[in-house]
From TrEMBL:
Domain ATPase AAA-type core: 7-60
Stated name of the protein: ATPase AAA-type core domain-containing protein
Signal peptide: none
GO MF annotation, one: ATP binding
A Pfam family it matches: AAA
Amino acid sequence: MTLERIVILGKPGAGKTTLATQLASRLSLRNIELDGISWQANWVQLPNNEMRERVSEVTTATSDWVLDGNYHFTHDIVWARADTLIWLDYPLWVALLRLLRRTAGRIFLQKELWNGNRESLRHHLNLNPDENLFAWTIQVHKRHRNEFPTILKQPEYSHLRVLRFRSPGETEKWLQTIPSAKDSGNKTVW
């Protein structure tokens, strides 16, 4: 089977974007980050219907892509078009530790994320999960583990090759088995 349309799921801090970047480079695929579509200037999120339209456009604009993100209202679009779903289902403490390192670095370096947005300490001092990424991560951890297996059993997703990795080491070991499309000049078959 080929790896041509890959969706990567996981809680914040799991490494979805990092893995997507690595796979896109290795397989010569278009890299699509859902947060980059969703978050407009000044941390304003696109309305769900506009987000769905843009996701539909971007996943039909090219036949080969790797996409990362957990926007549940786009699952029917993205998952239906994907051939492979990678779920980074790491322990909560792994994601929180990674999130702490990533967030501290972004705040300190004032790294631009999407459309001029930057993280601030203010976001993380609030306990509201809609603003505090740490609280959000804790909230979605159990929900993902309960909901994803059930959703993935639905007939409309039976075509997906599902890879569930439970540790960064497991993911890295799998990644090392993926040859570079650049080296072979062809689609990567796995």
